[in-house]
What we know:
Blueprint: H1 15-18, H2 25-43, H3 49-56, H4 60-63, H5 66-88, H6 91-110, H7 114-142, H8 145-159, H9 161-176, H10 180-200, H11 218-227, H12 229-259, H13 264-288, H14 294-318, H15 325-337, H16 339-352, H17 358-380, H18 387-406
Amino acid sequence: MSAPKSSLSKKPITAERVRSADLPVAWIMMLGLMVAVGPLSIDMYLPALPSMADDFGVSTAFMANSVPAYFLGLVFGQLFYGPFSDRVGRVKPLYIGMTLYVIASILCATTDNEYVLFVGRTMQALGACVGAVVTRAAIRDRLTAKQTAKAFSIMILVMGLAPILAPSLGALFLQFFDWHSIFWFLAAFGALNLLLTKFFFFETLTEENRNVRPAKEVLSQYWDLLKDPTFNYPAIGGGLLMGAMFVYISSASELIMDTYGVSATHFGWLFGMNAAGFVGLTQLNQWLTNRFRILSILRFGTMMQVLSAGTLFVVGIFLGTDAWLPLVLACIFFCIAGLGLTQPNASAIALAFQKQRAGMASALQGSLMFSVGIFGGLLLNLFPLNPVLKIGIALFVLMSLGAFLIWQIDRNLNLDDAE
């Protein structure tokens, strides 16, 4: 029987269906929609924080605590869904997570208590993170290592639009409705993902490839995973590189708006430009993987990020806030855009050899990224330095550590051995 063509249609699971010879573009783009629920939930309600604070009778700074409440749910939720999906398959966790997400979004839309909102935001994250875990694992189940790198690039093309458009979409809702409408929209988006799961997401994990080890061994399995050099170097190294982006997000408004006096509208354009650079290089990555080794592309992208962060670090030392804004923005642009060459390839290498624990590997990789972002953002606020030097130090240290780990990956690693 020949390998199936690219399609969204649901079919019985077979070996050929799981390891397709063709790149299923429509299916991958659907997975991108499932992952996009995360960035939409993070960014879309940010313009509503002041009006939400007024309604609840608290300060905007207090209401902003709902952001780390969401990140906390992302870290721990992924660690649960990983081993769960390795045991029961990829479909059931999607139903559970997205149902929880819809319920949590409705709770956020209807509550009149700020603490209930914080609980609802954490529940939202616990539900939304299933998309990131399961989709990465499903891609690894079905595709070869080289196809996986291409698939992540396609998926980022879809989900990467979310952080570009989400703040503007949230502001648009506020022009016609109140902040509750944003959470009703997110609930509807979660319901859409449930429908996509029902009608178009087929099971990719065959019975023989499921992890049947006792559930009580989950912690030891995570520890074994962290000791595996085919996983730990690309996963932790890639997590440090990606975590640097969350550090940038934490400090961007202080640096660009407060320090340089850029307006909110222009700030949105600059923020979107960096996201567009990230998405653009992920698409270039598809072309590059046909011509170069995945590890070579990963190392090139890593060096681009380190050199850009190092330049920003030097600029911060010698010029500080007197530095020319376009120079600062150019350094940041290449730091963030470079993720388009590092993230798809680091993920592909990290998951390549994790046949029976791809879900756990996907979960641990995602949790590492957000942990670095949360920890790095907190450290950033402890430095009594000028904003340019502060972000320069944070990005340079994280990316240098990431580069060190990337260079520990065996240069002779043959990803074809993973098939």
